[in-house]
């Protein structure tokens, strides 16, 4: 009987302890709500009872607790656009800007149609022809999605990647049609290097880190014509110092408000590599810049003009290429500008884009620029 | 101000209990009435119609009772009992009347059941001395049973709330707190999560219809509704117990039912009893066991349930399969087989639960139209992507926790567990009880901090899709 009473007493004490603790917490929150900066939803409420009711839902500490519990305990993030992978990896499902669905492409349900493949091949051939008319070689490199490379971070239920992804279909199509365009997918190379514990991609963004950038650099350098390779120095990975640390979560984590909970495993280059060359921003309109090293002048011809679809990839690869050539030109975007070629006088144009941006190769505006130049050359 | 809203759980309930304890032993009935009025007044902030409708219902019941005392007429009683139901239907269709700014006053359906119960019990000469305005107010405003029952007939309520039967003390507080916590966990940590998952599945499968997903969704909905309703009912019983009122705990046997009628008998604790007492028993002809009468009784039971949940025309075709099954299983030989043959009972249970689940899905989908559209658009293309998308969303260990909680709750109700516990020594029983108590407290706290803030919609409308 005494034991029963003790159990009853303890239950009542703990039960009311919980209720009263939250009563005090919410009452303080309701009384001291910042009138200058209330949460939008709370400010919309007309009466105190509703504010009190919704205080718990809008409390920053509670929200943070929910997000942390969701991720750390339940391995899940509260977003329908994000897949939670292993080793702290997050994968986006859809890239609305590029009208691209990562998951659909992964399972082979988002491939290009035959018409689209033919159109892309035609566009690439047009670009190659235009550059060839100027005596310039042309190459395209595609950096794969993190979902295509980081196989050890992909959740089990996804299974293996389909062989009918956009990139695989395009590569196959160009090979089968004996296209003269030098089109290189870096999937196999990066996937082969991704078996170790050091990641090649940022775990909270679909982008390569400095190690991934190094393997991309190495793959691009290996594909450049011999004449260009002879006048360059291939950097060795062993001679490069990488800085490894955890920083706030990048784009995907930030989009779901979890940048403080899901940290990014950041790997970057140290300053000693960056200090060995000079950067000259030439034409801001075209976002053209040149780097020079070993006493070269910015007026000298640049053997290679790199064009990047993403500023991040340019920043990652610039220190590596700039230390390999005495003079290199970099441009953002794939627009055709005759002046850029006149100014940099490259032997080769290398376009670097991401797997999720393959749709850019169908961009009618850019293709019209090449078409106009082609018509101009014909005349 | 519904039971899971912070304003009720963390403000109203502790303050009401403090007031109740302070006012003393001799004023329990008066105190509970004051608290019930306060509850109604605070409902103004949620929906101004709620207190207005209840005030109207009290006055209506009081005046009708006076009238029936003066002029005893069976037909008058039937007419006066139908009027509150007509008002209920009217309130459920306010937007059709151009009053879209007003929303349905949740809890009114239980008020209508109570009012009819009061009028009928008083008319039939029971509890003649307990029919003052004070008694009507106390019964119709008794807030613990206003959200999801249990449905209590007036004669039982009058007995339970007699001053000498009210036991306000640490033991009842403890039992009440446990029931409240259990109900809270069932409603918020299990019911709400299952309903959220169901809504996601339906939204997902409307875009890409899939039979497997639909079947899984129907099962989810059945359990979501089970945990939601029994959670609220358990909280109601728990609250009443904290105030010293010993309502029978609605231990839901609705998962082990063998026929739709069994389900109804356990629905909202005693919904079937209410129908039996006020809709079947007054008509002695229905006591016969012929085919026609059996079909008629099945119709009354099932149609009343459907119209009680939602007063719309589409519930009538939705309830037809349930009526037919109830009729088929109601045959005396089959009733006997259900009782004696475990295999037949199992088959009957599976069939009943399946039809009940489909009924809930039809109620939720608001008719056959969405179902038909769904079936004619069934596709199998792009299956891998759809399955992956589903898995990506459902690959959440939260569901494992929810499943574990649900199983634990169901286990604690099971006869086998109770039998096992009953055969242990007092010491073991105390330890198990203590452990369960701490687990309950921990889950309650976790539900408040993790699950409750994710479902603010339930602060304003406890069911979202049902109009109780």
Please tell me about this protein's structure:
The complex is a heterodimer of chains A (379) and B (468). With 379 residues, chain A is of the alpha/beta class. The longest helix of chain A is centred in the N-terminal third of the chain and has 30 residues. The mean pLDDT of chain A is 86. By secondary structure, chain B is mostly helical. Helices cover 71% and strands 0% of the residues of chain B. Chain B contains 20 helices and no strands. The longest helix of chain B has 38 residues. The relative contact order of chain B is 0.10. The mean pLDDT of chain B is 83.
Characteristic key phrases:
heterodimer, A: 379 residues, alpha/beta, seven-stranded mixed sheet, two-stranded antiparallel sheet, 13 strands, B: 468 residues, mainly alpha, 20 helices, globular
How is this structure best summarized?
The complex is a heterodimer of chains A (379) and B (468). Chain A is of the alpha/beta class and 379 residues long.
């Amino acid at each position: 009987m005494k034991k029963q009473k003790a159990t009853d007493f303890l239950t009542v004490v703990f039960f009311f302890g919980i209720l009263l603790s939250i009563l005090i917490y919410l009452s303080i929150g309701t009384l001291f709500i910042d009138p200058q900066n209330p949460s939008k939803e709370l400010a919309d409420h007309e009466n105190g009872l509703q504010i009190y009711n919704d205080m718990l839902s809008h409390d920053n500490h509670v929200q943070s607790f929910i997000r942390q519990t969701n991720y750390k305990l339940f391995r899940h993030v509260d977003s329908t656009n994000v897949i939670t992978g292993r080793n702290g990896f997050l994968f986006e499902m859809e890239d609305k800007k590029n009208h691209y669905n990562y998951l659909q492409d992964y399972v082979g349900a988002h491939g290009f149609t035959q018409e689209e493949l033919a159109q892309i091949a035609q566009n690439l051939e047009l670009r190659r022809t235009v550059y060839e008319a100027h005596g310039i070689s042309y190459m395209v490199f595609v950096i794969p999605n993190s979902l295509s490379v980081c196989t050890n971070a992909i959740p089990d239920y996804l299974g293996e990647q389909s062989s009918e992804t956009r990139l695989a279909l395009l590569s196959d199509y160009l090979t089968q049609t004996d296209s003269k365009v030098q089109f290189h997918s870096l999937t196999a190379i990066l996937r082969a290097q991704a078996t170790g514990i050091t990641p090649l991609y940022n775990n909270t963004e679909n982008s390569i880190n400095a190690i991934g950038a190094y393997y991309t650099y190495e793959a691009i350098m290996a594909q450049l014509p011999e004449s260009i390779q002879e006048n360059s120095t291939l950097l060795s990975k062993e001679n490069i110092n990488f800085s490894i640390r955890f920083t706030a979560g990048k784009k995907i984590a930030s989009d779901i408000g979890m940048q403080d909970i899901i940290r990014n495993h950041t790997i970057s280059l140290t300053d000693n590599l960056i200090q060995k060359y000079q950067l000259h921003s030439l034409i801001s309109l075209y976002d053209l810049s040149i780097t020079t090293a070993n006493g070269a002048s910015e007026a000298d011809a640049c053997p290679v003009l790199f064009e990047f679809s993403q500023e991040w990839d340019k920043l990652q690869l610039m220190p590596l290429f700039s230390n390999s050539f005495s003079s290199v030109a970099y441009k953002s975007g794939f627009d055709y500008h005759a002046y850029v070629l006149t100014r940099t006088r490259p032997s080769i144009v290398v376009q670097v884009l991401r797997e999720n941006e393959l749709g850019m190769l169908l961009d009618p505006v850019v293709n019209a620029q090449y078409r106009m130049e082609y018509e101009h050359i014909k005349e | 101000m519904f039971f899971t809203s912070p304003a009720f759980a963390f403000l109203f309930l502790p303050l009401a209990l403090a007031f109740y304890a302070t006012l003393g032993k001799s004023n329990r009935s008066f105190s509970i009435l004051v608290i019930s009025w306060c509850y109604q007044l605070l409902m103004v902030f949620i929906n101004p119609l709620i207190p207005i409708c209840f005030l109207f219902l009290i006055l209506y019941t009081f005046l009708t009772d006076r009238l029936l005392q003066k002029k005893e007429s069976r037909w008058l009683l039937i007419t006066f009992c139908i009027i509150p139901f007509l008002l209920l239907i009217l309130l459920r269709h306010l937007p059709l009347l151009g009053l879209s700014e007003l929303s349905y006053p949740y809890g009114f359906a239980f008020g209508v059941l109570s009012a009819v119960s009061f009028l009928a019990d008083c008319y039939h000469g029971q509890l003649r001395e307990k029919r003052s305005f004070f008694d009507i107010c106390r019964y119709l405003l008794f807030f613990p049973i206003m959200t999801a029952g249990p449905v209590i007939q007036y004669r039982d309520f009058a007995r339970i709330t007699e001053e000498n039967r009210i036991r306000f003390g640490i033991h009842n507080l403890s039992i009440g707190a446990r029931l409240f916590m259990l109900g809270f966990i069932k409603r918020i940590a299990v019911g709400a999560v299952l309903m959220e998952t169901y809504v996601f599945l339906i939204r997902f499968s409307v875009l890409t219809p899939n039979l497997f997903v639909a079947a899984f969704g129907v099962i989810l909905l059945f359990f979501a509704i089970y945990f939601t309703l029994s959670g609220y009912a358990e909280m109601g019983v728990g609250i009443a117990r904290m105030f010293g009122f010993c309502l029978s705990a609605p231990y839901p046997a609705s998962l082990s039912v063998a026929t739709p009628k069994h389900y109804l008998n356990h629905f909202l604790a005693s919904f079937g009893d209410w129908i039996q007492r006020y809709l079947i028993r007054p008509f002695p002809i229905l006591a016969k066991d012929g085919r026609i009468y059996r079909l008629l009784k099945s119709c009354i039971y099932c149609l009343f349930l459907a119209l009680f949940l939602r007063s719309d025309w589409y519930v009538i075709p939705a309830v037809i399969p349930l009526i037919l099954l109830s009729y088929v299983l109601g045959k005396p030989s089959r009733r006997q087989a259900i009782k004696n043959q475990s295999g037949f009972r199992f088959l009957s249970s599976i069939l009943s639960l399946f039809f009940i689940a489909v009924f809930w899905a039809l109620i939720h989908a608001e008719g056959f139209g969405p179902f038909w559209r769904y079936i004619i658009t069934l596709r199998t293309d792009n299956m891998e992507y759809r399955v992956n998308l589903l898995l990506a969303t459902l690959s959440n260990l939260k569901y494992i926790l929810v499943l574990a909680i649900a199983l634990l709750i169901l286990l604690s109700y099971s006869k086998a567990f109770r039998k096992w516990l009953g055969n242990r020594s007092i010491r073991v029983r105390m330890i198990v009880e203590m452990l369960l108590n701490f687990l309950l407290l921990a889950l309650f706290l976790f539900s408040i901090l993790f699950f409750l803030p994710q479902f603010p919609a339930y602060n304003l409308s406890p069911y979202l899709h049902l109009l109780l």
